[in-house]
């Protein structure tokens, strides 16, 4: 079963643009292949990543810090990640996606979230697009409940493993 499904009423030509391909390549690297080289290939040298809203307490990350974060956190905090894209809005240098997901946390608990991903894109010399920035809006209420509980569960598993 693919990790990503596209459930929109958009014209297929709109979802197969070079801009959309760049956004989907980023998602593919982050949630399907978990491949650092693939991820590095789809982002620009001046790439930035931000989790929003700011009330969640995350700071913006530049390319190198994001790559470390992806490898240490994003690639590891859930398994069996399945995302559904419900709506796509595009312009020449941006793609906005509304998506939902389901996954299993590292402690075995269900993880479901809603996302609004804003991809800022940069056209390359070859005409293709790379991702210059991602702003990832999460369900703040869900995150405020899930992540503290998940940290407690991880701590308990760690303590039990030391016995």
UniProtKB/TrEMBL annotation:
Pfam families: SnoaL_2. Residues 29-122 form the SnoaL-like domain. It comes from the Eukaryota. InterPro entries: NTF2-like_dom_sf (IPR032710), SnoaL-like (IPR037401). This is SnoaL-like domain-containing protein.
């Amino acid at each position: 079963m693919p990790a990503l499904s596209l459930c929109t009423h958009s014209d297929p030509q709109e979802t197969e643009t070079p801009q959309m391909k760049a956004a989907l390549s980023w998602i593919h690297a982050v949630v399907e292949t978990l491949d650092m080289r693939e991820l590095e290939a789809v982002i620009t040298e001046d790439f930035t990543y931000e989790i929003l809203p700011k009330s969640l307490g995350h700071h913006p990350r530049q390319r190198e810090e994001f790559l470390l974060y992806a490898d240490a956190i994003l690639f590891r905090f859930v398994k069996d990640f399945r995302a559904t894209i419900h709506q796509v809005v595009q312009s020449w240098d941006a793609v906005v996606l509304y998506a939902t997901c389901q996954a299993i946390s590292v402690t075995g608990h269900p993880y479901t979230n809603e996302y609004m991903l804003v991809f800022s894109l940069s056209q390359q010399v070859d005409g293709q697009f790379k991702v210059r920035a991602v702003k990832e809006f999460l369900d703040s209420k869900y995150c405020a409940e899930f992540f503290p509980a998940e940290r407690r569960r991880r701590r308990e598993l760690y303590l039990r493993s030391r016995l």
